[in-house]
Amino acid sequence: MPTDELNVAAFWQGAHKEAAKRYTDLVIAGQGAYSIVASAKDTHTNETVAIKRIAEVFYDAHEAKKVLREIRLLRDFCHPHIISLRALIYPASIETFEDMFMVTDFMQTDLRRRIKSKQEMAEGLVVGYMAQMLSALAHVHSLCGIHRDLKPANILISAKGSLKLCDFGLARTVTSGGTLSSAGTDAAVDRGREARAGSEYESEDGEAAAPKATADAIAETVASKSMMPPPLKHQMTKYVVTRWYRAPEVILQEPYSTAIDIWSVGCIFKELLELMPGSRFRTGALFPGRYCIPFSFDDDKQFRTRHDQLNVIFHVLEKPTTEELAWATVESQAEVARLVHGFSELPALERAEQRKQRLADKCGAAGSVEIDLLAELLAIDPRSRPSAASVLDSHPYFSAIEPAEKPPLFPPANKAEVEAAFAFERENLNVNDLRILIANDLFRMMQDGHGGG
What we know:
The protein has 2 domains: about 5-105 and about 430-450, Phosphorylase Kinase, domain 1; about 110-175 and about 240-400, Transferase(Phosphotransferase) domain 1 (Transferase(Phosphotransferase), domain 1, Orthogonal Bundle). It is about 40% helix and about 10% strand. The chain is an alpha+beta fold. GO terms for molecular function: ATP binding; protein serine/threonine kinase activity.
């Protein structure tokens, strides 16, 4: 049912007064540390849309840059299986605005809820979801992007089986070189934000626990200058869930590339496979690490945290060979060797079969083609993981999809245009600089007919 007038007024604080006239039947869907998400009816199109209200965008430069990055990524992606930025709602004052209102597609639910329901999923639907996911990811990667937080909660689905990637707040662009660092100041800030990212948090049993969005709560989110994180219990559990889909190179704080998204797809694929008819299991995540203290300054605790997740990965996939870790630094190789008590000495072919068998043991209903794809996606060596485009284009798992029904693979992006759009990433900008850039994007979207009120 629509949200009461007091909450509606609190939600629209900072937006141009015409916005509330255009978007009616507002329903608050969730509240996070930095944002509030609502569904509403767009009276211009008569469609239901989602509106994300981001408070205090210019509280610090990191937050402002994250918002600018998400705006430009969503603005430029334009793909049927990526959430669309339909409009940016004009603020009450362009000179002093602090909050952003992003209008996007509305989807009924997300893949996390669908997986947690443990309801059977037809094989054709699993194939369709995987094809749509890889098509969207191929487009992200062609635009030099890395999602960096791909997990079931960030994959929206409709009642008709359509899928869209969302939540690009942690995404990055790689316009020069092709890899990003997992360490350093920016990475530390990101790790702090990862634990609080999104519009809802996980309770201890994994169910959604979105804070109640009352007028007081909305006003507090809007007015707070302290930007306090949610309770530690929520931080810890949310952070653990995110880590379940994290590739070894990120855990080891090695440079990483688009291959980290491919690893995440593999983790999600396993959860979909066990929902197929005939599956003996409904065990959930493939690599469910248990121990995590996201904001600890205790190096020993951070070390144990990393080892916990690596332990889970290598317990499932067995100890790696030296060849599988040839991409890592000597220090990381030594760390893994200590953790697994020495490397495997199996020949490459035997080791590959061992990994497939271990994965088959986790996916009772999966056939050899599914296990082959899963093993490719979850290659320990990131250089051995296939690209999203190559998998969708050539892997036998997708051969049953008629060419006309296969999700599109768009041409690679113009690298010069990407470099220009994300030049701000390489500049040391303050909040005033970023306010000007975001204001310019607001004007541009309005001129293009995407001003939301």
